[in-house]
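Listing 4. Sequential folding, example run.
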Amino acid sequence: MKPLPRTPELLNVARRIVWFKEPGEALADPLHFLAHVMTYGTVEDLIAVQKVVGKEDFCEVLDNPPPGVFDKRSWAYWNLKCGREPAPPLPVRRGLQAEKPGT
């Protein structure tokens, strides 16, 4: 994925949505940043982001989703927007699944 420009609009979106990182650091990882926008972004955030990325970039995030970011609703919505119906299983973090009793 191409790097994202550090525009004032994108830095503001990054500051609000990826609050646990510095805005420039959040933009340096486009897949992670866009996944957060796709899950937690407002309409205004999406308008700002869509000035620099296109549908193919959102679809690329779905090809390489960071586990633990998407919720069921946003995962289903973005897969539908990218023409993927039915949506594949939601990505999960490895090693965090609860062990079954007796295993």
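-- end of first protein; second protein begins --
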Amino acid sequence: MTDAAKQAIFTQLRIILLQYSPPYHPRMRGDKGIDLWAEGTYEFMGKTRSEMFFASAIIMGDYVGFYFMPIYSDVESIKKVIPPRLLSMLKGKSCFHIKKWDDDLAHDVKTALKHGFAIYKARGWV
């Protein structure tokens, strides 16, 4: 995968992610990575936290990583609404390895983020 191809994928992911800022705030916002966080007091997995991570994109060696934290909040429910093509790119607990980009995949990412945002909002994490 060429650097130009990875940069093009990352650029598209960054545009989509920035649609959630605000309410989320990027801490890392560069040419190779972006992440979105909420700051406040949140209860998650039995612990009180002062921040909540939502999603990020980062250029890696041979793919662009799309990290999607709502998957931790309700694994079974969120996996049911993530489109199958995107779900097939899940290579760990929350990281999707993206190597090719098209309009259908952009739609899939937007769908996942929409559902993840709804879950976070229902739990008071937005």
